[in-house]
Amino acid sequence: MKTGLSMLIFDYFLWHYLEAPKKILKIWGNFLRFFVGYFIPIPQLLRTLFAPWKRDVTSYGRGFDLGKFLETFLFNLISRFLGAAVRSIVIFFGLFLEILALFAGSLFFVFWLSWPFFLAGSLASGIFLLFQPGLIKTATLFIVIFDLATIFAFGLLYQKSKQKAPPQMNLEEIFEQSWSEIVFKRLGLNPEQIPPDVKNEPETFLNQFLEQNKIEKKDFSHILEWQIAEQIYRQNSKKFWEKENLFKIGGIGRTWLYGWTVNLDKFSYPLGEAKESPHLIGRRQEVETIGRILSKTNQSNVLLVGEPGVGKNTLVKQFARLVNQGRTAPGLAWRRVLELDLNAALAGLTNEGQIKERLIRIFNEASRAGNIILVINDFHNFVSSEKNIIPILMPFIERSFFQLIAMTTYENLHGQIEKNPGLLKFFEKVEIKEPDLDHVLLILEDSLGQIEKRTNSFITYQALKEIIKTSDQYIGDVPMPEKALDLLEETAIYVAGNTQDYFVLPRHVDLIISQKTEIPVGELAETEKEKLINLEEVLHQRIVNQELAVKEISSAMRRSRLQVAAKNRPFGSFLFLGPTGVGKTETAKALAQAYYGAETRMLRFDMSEYQGVTALERMIGSSVTQTSGVLTTAARENPFSLLLLDEIEKADLNILNLFLQVLDEGWLTDALGRKVNFRNMIIIATSNAAGELIREMVQQKIDPDASKQKILDYIQQNNIFRPEFLNRFDGIVIFEPLSQENLIKVSALQLENLSKRLQAQDYIFKPTNDLVTKIAQMGFDPTFGARAMKRVIQDKVEDLIAKKMLRNEIQKKVPFEIKAEEIV
Predict the structure, then answer these.
(1) What confidence tens digit (pLDDT) does each residue in 380-421 have?
(2) β-strands 336-340, 268-270: how paired?
(3) Between the chain's N and C termini, which has fewer beta carbons within 10 Å?
(4) Which fold has domain 526-734?
């Protein structure tokens, strides 16, 4: 016992005289640097002691007028005197604070070193006097109690200093912390239901517990690291004496050297002054680049280029926060970063004279102030013919009177800004790309606190992973991280408003995505499992013969739905080869119905219309005319559709080259610089190439599928398709000509469809076998296959039924037939 107490006392004195003084000196140094170098910038105030107050001076002008000369001289003298007087007062106040900090720090340091000896003597004297007769025992008792309380307080301070930081704790020690409950809640678990053995002996029972709850160990480890980092951040935020926290406090007198900005302040607001702002995640290189450009003497303007939603505004706000705290290059530190609202500045102005007058006044103030970095969002909106501020702005940025950060998109960079000759030479372009998915996860983790407060829900880590996966796969028209953040907020709002759940789970995310896309996402329901297993039968309800095509398509859909196939390609891509009228288009329609829920969710392009030099422009648009392409527009507006490319062999070679990237990577960039996503589409290209060869094979009773390579060789030898184009498809399917038996089945299917349409009007049409056979004979054409069958049904059967209706020969809810001999 004595040995343990002796070691404790020895350890305490080691801490008191070795470790603690180092920390005290560091804190003392922080305050000394803070008061002189930052809070009151004495060196800067001394250098500019006699500078005019807020740069407020008047110019005498040309000629000589004694009265005007004396008036100007007197005004400027007063301005300098006023500046010197105010700065002198603040300098003396700063020196006073510095001396006070120096004295207080010295006094505290001496006290810290000497108080154990003083306290020991005081306590011993107090205890001795307490037992002496004739003394005032109340005062002595108070001194003893005070000494003991002081020892207890410093003991607590010592104990706190010896506490392990979260990264140094083992699992058992972590589970003793109150914040460890968040780790289990992020996994969707109720902390009160965690078995005690898991917390008391995690090395033994934790892995088994995670396996029982179907939780991956790497997910648990990630959440643990996340929460440890969160605790470190919170602990450091409470240490106001640290340099990073001290320098967040605003200073005095730093802006007095710079001019007034009365008009500019009316139409702008400062960036970087918010107390709470997202952390800078994955953008440090871009921030450093912006700072380096703005620090240059010439061409010190930045053009930020990136798609809406990649984080341009957040990046600028983070840069402004660093500038506001003086944590940038010396030439930029503590400048004012202002976002200029040009829409507000130009509102209500009716002619060019008024616009020019107001803008010149604003830009002159920014120039005279000397510490302004202007930010203009959507810069492209103000370089067009309607709102062209370039003639007014150009003289200011040409002479580097102030720095400018302009933001735009790739589309508007090419379509608007590049049309202004000479403008871009005053800017350096900084491209802001989408962050990778690992950084998106960190951004979501950094943002979910505010969403949880607003919605009173708790977002699980599994939900965050599902948000990233599904938004990346199914949302193509918005870049990361905006689409993930939007989905996160939308899911949390849904859970809070439409369910009784507290935890936001992956199934909630899948539900929101399913509602947006109208296709099933997430875990498979039993009915959907049954549909996928028997998909061949579902498709054969509309498709006659073509067993191989149905099999390959069904296989691709199963792989895509279960996410076995590659995610960076379309859901499926097929080249259908065969003669006209064998069911290629009907197969595409059946697939659109089966997978996307409606036959109408099919984008159909007749590729014979896309030939010649203008074909590519019609498809993807033109940067010259600033028009969108028909393909890219349709894909952006209908990302969850089947894309049917009819007779693709007739398309221009540039079109075929275009689809090399689409089939391989699932996206392309249009002429306006926009990324268009095809990864949620099934792409089917049809071709009549080698149709006659396939027909001859069937007539010779040669299985076309068995001689598939011969057909492909024929296509390549005749330069119809190149090998690299053919290899991009998931499958090349040979469609055989229909036999007489097949034609009868097609006829039966089409007449059955007619019967269903009439049944919706309460007419009961019963097709007979003779009618089915008659239509099959009349609807077959050696050249066009079964394609003519629909026309025969329209011209012969439907027209006859319509006439019978008009003659009242057919009654509602009374079955009727059409005899074969009536069809002539």
Answers:
(1) 999 976 788 999 999 999 888 899 999 999 889 988 898 887
(2) antiparallel
(3) N
(4) Rossmann fold (3.40.50)
